[in-house]
Amino acid sequence: MDIDTECIPLGHIQTYFDLRKSMVPEADWLQKRTQIATRNPHEILEAIIGIDQRDFYRNANIDYQPGDTGCFISTRQCLALIDQAVRALEMPYLGLPMGNLMTISHHGMAGLAAVTQPTLYACLETIRRFCTELFPPLEMDGRIEENEACFVISENISLAPYSHFFFELNMVSFYNIFVHLVGGEKKLRRVEFSYPEPAWGHIYRRYFQCEVRFGQAETRLVGDPELAYYELPLANRLMAMSAEKTLFENIPTRAIRLLPLRLRHLLVRYYGAFPSLENAASDLGMSGRTLRRKLAEEGTTYQQELDAVRQKLAHEYFLRGGESVTELALMLGFADSSAFAKAFRRWTGVSPSEYQERQHA
Questions:
Q1: Could you give the dihedral angle defined by the CA atoms of residues 201, 205, 210 and 216, in that order, rounded to the nearest 10 degrees?
Q2: What is the C-alpha to C-alpha distance for residues 140 and 156, in angstroms, rounded to an integer?
Q3: CA neighbours within 13 Å on the CB side: how many for 113?
Q4: What's the Cα-to-Cα distance from 118 to each of 176, 232, 256, 312, rounded to whole Å?
Q5: pLDDT tens digits for 154-197?
Q6: Which helix H or strand E contains 190, and what residues bound it?
Q7: Contact criterion met (CB below 8 Å) for 298 and 292
Q8: How far is CA 334 from CA 34, 203, 274, 310, 339, in A?
Q9: CA dist 15 → 80, 102, 109, 136, 302 (Å)
Q10: Does residue 171 contact residue 189 with C-beta atoms inside 8 Å?
Q11: Where are the domains of the chain?
Q12: Best exposed site among 41, 149, 293, 314 by fewest CB in 10 Å?
């Protein structure tokens, strides 16, 4: 998958931009809901609901006809849509108010399937699966550790220059959903962003009623570990299954057929004992020769995908407080710590020890 791979269902992206479904056409309401004070909120309201759809898609080189449910777009085209919206509204922080407008109901069947899971962890796992299918440029993952639980959002490919838009939108939206489900009974400890504080950093603190940190190792929501087992008030297994079925009947997906993503997910499952190319190919239902050819067609190799997974796992190991380079090298399948250190420097530009020092700092 690269920036021009058409793997994002346009039907899903339209939930970002068709905010008319969840908006009351009053400027005062918009200003209150988005928590943004403007000199002329009427103009912002008009801009949000008045962008001509045909021009909007045409300017992003998207051939779309109303009612077309099988249209897929690339990451490049998606970024072009974001760029138009940000420029039209002159709001570089657009992800924050858009995320705040996206309630559970705005997420449609995806939101219903998530919030009717039995526990918060199951809810986040459902969101993770949906993200893989509906927006493969992003990856979401839930982790439970000894002292905290977290929900992590990361990029599979670069979304620059609008990475912050997607992080802002999803973090605010999921934070609000958390508050809606859990109420005042439980609170998150903090939210963290993996980039330096932007010029509009002060606006972030209007949306999160907890500590906000920038320049962190990951973008994530962080809370107490027992939150993972919190029983959701809307739990209904039959409704969850029905909502998910309806979702994928109405929004077709392609991500599950993207071989590099399938391979990465397979490799993560083998953490500690990565398979050979031949064994991985067998698990994926093809020969080693076919796997090599198909990966080459996608502009990658088995080694590149393995290195990407190793880098991600190494990053998570250090983030969780792991300190033994030798242990990590063996877990990632390197012959010794020096071979791992050489690879780690190639990935990050620094040695493992330098990376750990930065983490502690």
A1: -10
A2: 10
A3: 19
A4: 19, 6, 25, 29
A5: 998 889 999 999 999 999 999 998 888 887 778 899 999 999 99
A6: strand 190-192
A7: no
A8: 50, 45, 10, 10, 6
A9: 16, 9, 11, 16, 35
A10: no
A11: 8-91, 105-229, 258-360
A12: 293
Cis peptide bond prior to 352, omega within 30° of 0: no
Q: Which amino acid is at 158?
A: S
Could you give the percent of the chain with pLDDT greater than 70?
A: 84
Cα 348 to chain centroid distance, Å, stands at 22
CA gap 234, 120 in Å, rounded: 11
Annotate 256-295 with b (16+ C-beta within 10 A) or e (fewer). eebbbbbbbebbeeeeeebbebeebbebeeeeeeebeebb
- Write out pLDDT tens, residues 293-332: 888 877 789 998 888 888 888 887 887 677 888 888 888 8
CATH number for the region 258-360 comes to 1.10.10.60
Strand 190-192, strand 211-213: pairing: parallel
pLDDT at 47 exceeding the cut of 80: no
Tell me what the pLDDT averaged over the chain comes to. 82
| Residue 78 to residue 12: CA distance in whole angstroms | 11
Residue entry with tokens 């809810």? 123
At 140, give phi and psi (nearest 5°).
-125, 145
61: left (phi over 0), alpha (psi -120 to 50) or beta: left
Conformational region of residue 334, where left means phi above 0, alpha means psi within -120 to 50, and beta covers everything else: beta
Q: Which of 102, 134, 78 is nearest to 251 (CA)?
A: 134
Strand pairing of 190-192 and 72-73?
Answer: unpaired
Burial of 79 (0-12, 13-18, 19+ CB in 10 A): buried
Task: Count CB-CB contacts under 10 A for residue 348.
Answer: 15
Q: Please, what is the end-to-end C-alpha distance for the chain in angstroms?
A: 35
Closest CA to 224 of 176, 171, 178: 178
d(CA 116, CA 153): 22
Residue 27 belongs to what H/E stretch?
helix 27-34
Whole-number Å distance between alpha carbons of 227 and 222: 10
Contact (CB, 8 A) for 110 and 247? yes
Distance CA 203, CA 168 (A): 11
